[in-house]
Amino acid sequence: MPNLDKSKVLYVDDSRHQRRFAQRKLAPLQCEIVLANDGEEGLRILLADSDITHLRTDNDMPVMSGLQFLEMLSTQHQPRLQLLRHVVFKSAEFDSEERIGKEVHRVCAAIAELGVQITITEGAAHEDSVWKRIATQ
Question: How many CB atoms within 10 Å of residue 72?
Fold first, then answer.
């Protein structure tokens, strides 16, 4: 089975159910998982822990959305962002509202220009296959 051995994933989502689900889904990939409730907490954790190699964030969260979190990383914390191997951005609504869709793609393009792989997912089923693909890279 593919794995993310020696990888550390920061999983940011305000849903307790999603965080528990992620722990079960990512456990077979043999990676360490760090959980955060929102973008603000995720940013604090990411900046304090240089061992985190992968980031997954939801978009729709209180305090700081996933998009705000990624934008802050891409504009104010580029050196830390560039240490990540992959960013997974989950948003079921990213293309349902044109303005949000444009912002998501602008921020994701800025991250990709820094040499960081980024994947936008639309839900749990798609996200599961994304992690399996990442583990084989």
Answer: 16
Say if residues 72 and 26 touch (Cβ distance below 8 Å): no
Q: How far from the centroid of its chain's Cα atoms is residue 89's Cα?
A: 5
Walk across the sheet containing 32-36 and list its strands.
32-36, 8-12, 54-58, 86-90, 117-121
Q: What is this structure's pTM?
A: 0.89
Q: Whole-angstrom Cα distance, residue 1 to residue 18?
A: 23
CA atoms of 70 and 106, how far apart (whole Å):
11
12 vs 55: CA distance, rounded Å:
8
Query: Is 117 in contact with 88 (CB distance < 8 Å)?
Result: no
Token pair of 38 as six digits: 């929102």
CA dist 135 and 5 (Å) reads 9
Query: Could you read off the pLDDT of 51-109 as tens digits, one per residue?
Result: 999 999 998 899 999 999 999 999 999 999 999 999 999 876 555 566 667 888 899 99
